[in-house]
Amino acid sequence: MATKPDKITLEDLIQRATAGRKFNRHTLFRPSLSYYLLKDPFWLWCEHHAPKSAAVDETTRYEKLRMQQGVEYEQRWVKTNYPDALEIKPSFGFAALKNTLRAMLAGAPAIYQPQLWDLAQDTYGKGDLLVRDDREPSDLGPFHYRVVEIKRSASLQNSHVLQAAFYHHNVAQLQGYVAPELTIVLKDSSETVPYDGKENDIDVARQLWLSLRDGSVVPEAKRPPNSTSSPWRHYGNQRVQQDRDLLLLAGVQKREREKLRQAGIFRVDHLWNFRQQEISEIIGAHFGEIAYHVAQAYKLDGPIFKPGQQLTIPRANRLLYFDFETSDSVHPSEPPHTYLIGCYDDARDQFVKFLARGAADEGRIFTEFFDYVGDARDVCFYHWTDFEIHQLRRVARRWPMLSGMIEQFIEKCVDLKEAIQSAIYLAVPSFSIKCVAPALGFHWRQKDIGAYQSMVCYWDYLENRDLFAIDRALIYNEDDCMAMWHVDQTLQSRLKAL
Fold this sequence. Notes:
- Helices cover about 45% and strands about 15% of the residues.
- It is α/β, with parallel strands linked by helices.
- The chain folds into 3 domains: about 10-215, no CATH class; about 245-300, DNA polymerase, domain 1; about 320-495, 2-Layer Sandwich (Nucleotidyltransferase, domain 5).
- The strands form 4 sheets. The chain has a 6-stranded mixed sheet. A 5-stranded mixed sheet has the order 12-11-10-13-14, sandwiched between helices. A two-stranded antiparallel ribbon has the order 3-4.
- α3 packs parallel to α7 (about 200-215), α10 (about 275-285) packs across α11 (about 285-300) and α17 runs antiparallel to α18.
């Protein structure tokens, strides 16, 4: 084994970490923001350039529970695998940095929640775990540290790798040795990732972040109504709508939007001055047709038939508009299951619901739902997207005795979204029911609840903490069903007039 180098001091490590610069978190990049850098750079741009008064914190209890579970999973994993790991306290700040560096100098076997700074590269953060490795020396002594990042995720994501690579780079700067690999622990496995080649990924990411911080690049938001995440979602939605941004064109992809912008077309209403052929010359015939007609739908504020198409939706004597609400793996004890089946019965003009109380009760509500339906030979079951079909197949696997009825049920299902999207253009940014229904005059009664928040209401109901909490989930589900019915009826009425 190589000999230990000259003794490095705490002051040396502090200099490597800070480069003599003062700490200012408002101008620094945290590797924990790698997800936003890769998936939602508009959020990062908002952090530096959006008016602070426009921020609206929409963090839900579901998100808080999920984050809490991630922290608890990390703590359990470290305690199980490295029970003697030295936890760095305080959690943040210069004192935490010094305590991290002291632990590294002392050769601690494992360091939990280390502060890892590289202010020379405008980067700082708190890693999950550093593990001592005696196979190769570093400036610290006859050992070095390697990075272990812990994620309660079923699969490895690029953002996980980028975040760990940033920490790996910072550790290499501190210890004067680049370990050949890093480790990412997942929910049910772990991945060893080679570091070779990651320097380029870090450089690209760092340059993107600098351009976002400095404002030299204004990235595109996502499509409304979820243009970005809290606290900037409302601001992003308003910005897209006020600018009449090309994001409002359902079906036109990012590459084609960029081509339109390069041609000087930045707004939906700019397209009103162009013929379809002129637009097609810029972005091709397929997307040119879409862009032209969706822009015209905005101009007319109404639906437009696709060329040669008619809206044909299968009909029967009974029309049932159904929607599922599901519970996922964030719940600490209940396995994932469908907890609520809602259904608007058009013939009887009534909303019916079937509510479970725990995963073991799932089979009962499906049995009762099928009993309510009765003879399905002259029934059409309407849903929006294939979410419900996937859930039905999961239910069939969990409850084999229901599989026969479920398959018969699926055969009579009609995806309203696919039927409508294949036949008409609408003035919407996407064919999400949350976009289509409001565009046609329907509005949900509750403004602050969605599928995930409904899930938490159900969990409160399960734990008897709030017996009235489930009412909010029931109202939300009923509105989802009524939204489908409203879209169907409104389109049929409007299209007859064309």
